[in-house]
Design goal:
Largest sheet: 4 strands, antiparallel
Order of helices and strands: HEEEEEEHH
Radius of gyration: 20 Å
Shape: globular
Strand content: 15-25%
Strand order of the largest sheet: 1-2-3-4
Oligomer: single chain
Number of helices: 3
């Protein structure tokens, strides 16, 4: 297992790359970073939040604008873990593309900027060009689980005779 980069080092590099950013660090257990980012000269401005908790990993969110506009005809954001939370999917955990030894300023934050550029292209074209592995987001999974549970209950009710349904 890779040796985790100290959160003091992470904080220092974040401050040096992004002067004026907001950082809250709780010892070596947790760090929260927020900053306004403009991913390209033609891009809009976005507020990103990176939240790392020891043994739970790092999550990256778009705080603003919220909600992010969707491409015409689309009902959810592409390549996210949660559309309502605007939690970005930046790497494939199974392939170990990111680990705790890596600096956020060299991985997660540039990846989030790249995601935003692909997002802007998606809004304009309706096509996600950012690659990655298609997956359900957390909200979709919960909805399917809930629907599956309701289907099972309905299925049981259909099996019972009418006079025995409770």
């Amino acid at each position: 297992m890779a040796k985790r980069a100290s959160l003091i080092i992470q904080e220092g590099t974040l401050k040096s790359y992004f002067p004026g950013c907001k950082i809250i660090r709780y010892g070596e257990d947790e760090i929260v970073w927020e900053h306004n980012i403009t991913p390209s000269p033609l891009s809009g401005s976005y507020t990103l939040k990176l939240h790392y908790i020891r043994n739970k990993g790092a999550k990256v969110y778009v705080l603003s604008p919220k909600p992010l506009p969707l491409a015409p005809g689309k009902t959810r954001l592409p390549h996210v873990y949660s559309t309502p939370e605007q939690r970005l999917c930046l790497y494939y955990p199974v392939d170990n593309e990111w680990d705790v030894s890596m600096l956020y300023v060299q991985t997660l934050i540039p990846w989030a900027c790249e995601w935003l550029i692909h997002y802007e292209l998606w809004v304009a074209t309706g096509n996600w060009l950012g690659g990655g592995i298609e997956h359900e987001n957390i909200a979709e999974k919960k909805l399917k689980e809930k629907q599956s549970g309701n289907d099972e209950i309905l299925g049981e009710a259909k099996k019972k005779p009418k006079h025995d349904r409770r």
